[in-house]
C-alpha cells in the first residue's frame, strides 16, 4: 500500500516541531536561526512558511512518477513502493538536472562543499520501512501533518473540503499535480501565496521527454540506412563514370 | 629551447591561463558556491549555458561537412574537412573539460556508462557525446597517421571512414537535438518564447546552420591568420546553403510561435521580448537580409559578416534557453561570477592555442603537401591567438 502525508494548513499552528523532528531524524543542525530561515535548503528539508496568521509547509512532494527519477542520468532517484522518492548518493555525478527539472524545485545542493550532494526530504524512507510514520507527522501536536495510506488520505482530504463550509480552497494539492504526489496539501488561502504553482500540468512530466526519447531507435535505424544509401548513390555515379572511361560528372 | 615571441594575444592567453589556474583551485577546493553565482533556484549557469550548450553547437561543423564530403560526395569541400573536424574534436574535448568544472563530482563522470537510466535525456546526451568524441578522434586520427607515416593504420582508417562518418552523423543528430530535449521537462519554468515541443527539432536545425556558419567563419579566419589561400568558391557555396538552412529554421521557428500563440506576448514589452527580438534579428533577419543580396553573398567580407551574425544569434538562442529564459520562473536574476567567466574564457583560449599548434605541426590544411611545407607557414605561430577576438 502506498503511503502518503496529508498536511492541512488550517490545523497548523506554526510551531515548527515538524522542522525540528526532520532535522533530528536526518542528523542536521537545528537552532533558532535555522528555524527562522524561510526556505528549503541543503540543511532544511522541510520548512513551515507563514503568511500573516496562515501557514504552509514545503517538503518533497514525493511524486508518483517523479521527474527527478526520470531525468537523472545515473538513476540516483527511485520511487519506492511505499511512496518515498529516495536518493542514492553514491551514484550522483552532480549534474543538477534534477534541480532544474523538479516542478516543485525541491532538490537542494550542498553549494559550500568541495564534494557536494543533492539533499531533499525522502519521506523518512527508513522509518517507513520499519512501519513507522514520518518524523514530521509523529512530531505534529495538532494533526496538521497526518501520515497514512495515500488512498485513505485522499478520501479524507475530499471529505474535509466537503464538510469545511467553504473554509478550504476547493483543491487537494497533489491529487492530480504532475500526475499525482504522495504528499497532499489543503489550504484556506490560495496555494500561490506560498509559491505553489496552480497552473501546473496534470500529466506526469517524464512523458514529455520520454515521448521524444522513445523515437531514438527508429531514428537511428532509418537514419543509418538513409545515410548509407545516400553514400552509395552519390559515389556510384563516379564509379560508373570511371568504369565507362568517362570523366567524373562535375559536382554541384 | 624554443624562442617565444611576445604578442598581445599571447599575453592575453598567458593571463587567462594563470588566473584560470587560480580559479581552478578555488573551484575544486572551495566548491561551486565559492566559484559561481549558482544557487538552489538557479542551478545551471554559464558553464552549462555557454560552455556545453554553445560548445557542442559550435562544433557542429564536423558532422555537417563530413557528411557533405564523404556521404554526398561533394569532393570540392575536401580541403576544409580537416580544419573543421579538428575544430569539432577540440570543441568536444573542451566541452568535457568544462563539464569537469560544472559537475559536482566530476570524478564520477563515467557513472552513466555502468549506471543506466534510458528514460533520461541526460543519459542519452552523455552516451552520444562520449561515443561521438571517439568517432571524432578516429576521424581525426588520419591526420596523425599521415604525419607520422603510419601507412597501415592510415589504410585501416580509410576503410572504416564511411561507417565512422555515418555513425558520427547519427550521434550528432541525436545529441544536438537532445540538448533541446533536455528542456522539454520544464514547461512551467522556461519562457514561452523558447519552450516548445519542437525544441529538439529547432536545436538540430540550428546546429546545421551553425555548422555551416562556423565553417565559413573558420575558413575566413584561417585565410587571414594562417596565410592560407581563401577557398572563395567553397565558402560562397556554403553561404548559399546557409541561406537556405536559416530560411528553413526561421520558417519552423515562426510557425511554431504562431501555432502556440506565443507571438501575442510580443506586445507585452517584457525583458524577454527584447532578448527574443535581438535573437531573431541575429539568427534570422540580418543573415537572411545580407545573404539575399548577391553582391554580399559573393564577397568574402559579406560572407564573414553574415556567418558571424548567425553564430552570435544562435549563441544568444542557446543562452536564452539555458539562462535568461529561465530567470523569471526562478524568481532570481543570474549573472555569472568573474570566476565563471574566467574559466570560460580560458577554455576558449586553450582551444585557439591548441588549434594553432595543431595547424603548425600537423598536415591540417595541406592534404597533399608534406609536413615540412606546412610548417613553413611560420607566420601562423606569431599571429595565432589573434583569432580569439572574434569569439563570441
Outline the structure in words.
The complex is a heterodimer of chains A (252) and B (392). By secondary structure, chain A is α+β, with helices and mostly antiparallel strands. Chain A has two domains: 3-204, 2-Layer Sandwich (Alpha-Beta Plaits); 215-243. Chain A is built from nine helices and nine strands. In chain A, the strands form four sheets. Chain A has a three-stranded mixed beta sheet with strand order 8-1-9. A two-stranded antiparallel sheet of chain A has the order 2-3. A two-stranded antiparallel ribbon of chain A has the order 4-5. In chain A, a hairpin with a 5-residue loop joins strand 4 and strand 5. The mean pLDDT of chain A is 94. Chain B has one domain (44-381): Formate dehydrogenase/DMSO reductase domain (Formate dehydrogenase/DMSO reductase fold, Up-down Bundle). Chain B is 72% helix and 0% strand. Chain B contains 15 helices and no strands. The longest helix of chain B has 31 residues, at 151-181. Classes of the chains: A alpha+beta (252), B mainly alpha (392). Chains A and B meet through helix 3, helix 4, strand 6, helix 8 and helix 9 of A and helix 1, helix 3, helix 6 and helix 7 of B.
Characterize this entry briefly.
Chain A contains nine helices and nine strands. In chain A, strands 8-1-9 form a three-stranded mixed beta sheet. A two-stranded antiparallel sheet of chain A has the order 2-3. A two-stranded antiparallel ribbon of chain A has the order 4-5.
